[in-house]
Amino acid sequence: MGRTGYIVVGVIVALIATFGFVIFAFAWQITFKFALPLITDHNLSIGEAISLSARAGWSNIGGIILLSILEGLVVFVGLLALCVGIFFVLPIIWAANAMAFRMVFPDAPQPAAYNEPPRPDYYGGSFGQGA
Fold first, then answer.
1. What is the DSSP string of 13-47?
2. Cα–Cα distance for residue pair 57/41, rounded to 1 Å
3. How many CB atoms lie within 10 A of CB 72?
4. Burial class for 7, CB neighbours closer than 10 Å (0-12, 13-18, 19+)
5. Cα–Cα nearest to 92, from 74, 66, 72
6. By three-state DSSP, how is residue 59 classified?
């Protein structure tokens, strides 16, 4: 095998390794997509959060892959704007992830005690008391 043969084999091995790393990265992202929000929002332990995140992620694999592709495109557009646009698209990405989390894990209902505002004199002021 000549020198070009080694180069071709090296390129093929590099492409296979890159493809393997991309697949591994997608699997890792799908498994851990909701782990941190579950820990903070539902006060779960790390093991419970990872387990629930893995089940939810693999149950919604199509949506997560689509969300990742769209986030990648938005990041690319942000980077095209002289690398400054990334600061403007990061909140959009975070909001998209929060929306995806709420679509998979709907918000718990709020307690009834917070549905009515307090009386005007509750905080000790006289605003709203009339003359």
1. HHHHHHHHHHHHHHHHHHHHTTHHHHHHHH---HH
2. 17
3. 11
4. exposed
5. 74
6. helix
User: Tokens 């690319």 — which residue?
Assistant: 76
Q: How many CA atoms lie within 13 A of 67 on its CB side?
A: 21
Tens-level pLDDT at each residue, the chain (131 residues): 778 889 999 999 999 999 999 999 999 999 999 999 999 988 899 999 999 999 999 999 999 999 999 999 999 999 998 888 889 999 999 999 999 999 999 876 655 666 677 776 677 766 666 65
Handedness of CA 40, 46, 48, 51 (dihedral sign): positive
Q: Which two tokens stand for residue 45?
A: 């332990």
Q: Compute the radius of gyration of the chain from its Cα atoms.
A: 24
103: nearest Cα among 72, 47, 59: 59
On whether the CB atoms of residues 104 and 58 are closer than 8 A, the answer is no
Which amino acid type is present at position 127? Answer: F
